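Researcher: Please generate the 3D structure of the following complex. Treat every line as part of one assembly.
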Amino acid sequence: MQKILIIDDSSFSRNTIKKILGNNYHFIEANSGEMGLEVYAQEKPNLVILDLTMPGMDGIEMLERLLLIDPDAKVIIGSADIQDYNRQRTKELGALAFINKPFDKDSFPHVIENVLKGNSVGWQ
Amino acid sequence: MAIKLTAGQKDALTELINIGFGRAGATLSTMLEQRIILSVPEIDITSIDDLDKLVACYNHSEITTIHQVFSGTVSGNALLILDELSASTLLDLLTNRTGRPRRLNASDREALIEIGNILLNAYVGSFGNILNVNICFAVPNIQIDTVRGMFETLRIGQDGIKYVLVVRTEFRLSAGSVKGHVLIVMGVKSLDALISALEDTGLL
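Model: Done. Output below.
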């Protein structure tokens, strides 16, 4: 079973993601960027779903650090931030998709499947 | 001293806010699978001491406020305000629960913070996109207090600011079960930056 690391300071948001994706994946969670980096190193997940606005290390910094450690890490940004600037910035840094909250229960699972295959999606 | 907006500036700002609020309303509608009715935005420049008069409809009752500070070229405070019944009903709709209004527990608060985060980002983030400026959002927080108490907390963070630009918008669900306000409160310096950014886009 593929392992997905959800990094989000909101447990509501983490639970929403797990509810949408169901029992198809093994989920691990972190509530901060700092914790996310630690858990990533220990668990080596197949995919990371990363929030941007978090206390302490935010999602952009976390993404930068993560891709320095593992340039092949597959990361989807899952954020309420709708700004084109941050979408572009995370794309340049190497995220494979950017999905705005609230997550769409129909399309979100397809994004996950695609990114797990190494495709970059959802930047339109 | 208070400053005044020209008719053209007010018109452009109202349009900007309409777009942002429309985006926020659409987002809320998606979350709740219900039609959301939005009011026409009202823009005021007011004394920071008079903020509570803008949402006098809540009187002295307790309100739930999700508060998010934003910074960058344009900075300020975004507030989602709900009365007790609306906060409780919103949670019921979101989690498919039913029941009477209740005291909010930790997971209720987390859920409301996340609703606020999504709504306020959709609203204020639209400004960033249209004005081509980057806006940084702080982590949102929740406060349950009277209107007066809530604005007292807000005023503590506004060192030396006497007048603020306030954008007031009201929304309600078509069923009428939930209604709330979204307020954007910005210092006059940010208003200058906002007008300047609007001029740069050619919207003014």
